[in-house]
Every structure is written in C-alpha cells, then in structure tokens.
Amino acid sequence: MQEVAIQDMPLGALSTAAAVIPIVLVVIVLLVLYLVFMVRAIIDMLRHDVHGVLLTFAFLSLIPFPLILVLGIMILIIWHYHKKDLIARRAGQGNQTV
Fold it and tell me: Which sign does the torsion angle of CA 14, 16, 19, 20 carry?
C-alpha cells in the first residue's frame, strides 16, 4: 500500500477540505446547541405541567430535520413567553388575599 503525503495531494482536494471542515464543525456545534436548548425547554415544560400538544410538538422537534428545526425554534420562542405568563400567573395568585 502506497502512502500519500499531504504535499503529494492535489491542491483542489486540500482547498475543498479546508473550506468544508469548518462549515461542518459549525453546523454540528449549532445542532448540539439547538438540542441542548430543546431538552432544557422540554424539562421545564414537564416541570410546569404544560398542555400535551405543546409537549408533543417539543418532542417531535428533537428530530434534526430542517423543517422540524424551524418548528423547534418556534416552540422555543413560544415556550419563552408562555413560561413568563405561567410565572406571572403563579406570582399573582400568591399575592391575592381573600
């Protein structure tokens, strides 16, 4: 088997690899970051006992498919505001005196 040194590789292959590898690494890092945020949101949803529909779509958005990633981002935005409403409602109920 013949060994090929880096100097012997064609210039096109090296330049292509040099351009593709950082892009792939960035995509992988973004996907891992997305999944971390989704799992944290799902754990919060379970803790706050949210409606099953929101939870179902949150679990579905863990599938790394481009259109479902858009769904997941929308669910993260919805959950951000819904969580604020839940916390404000609980704080308001705690301040009421009868």
Answer: negative
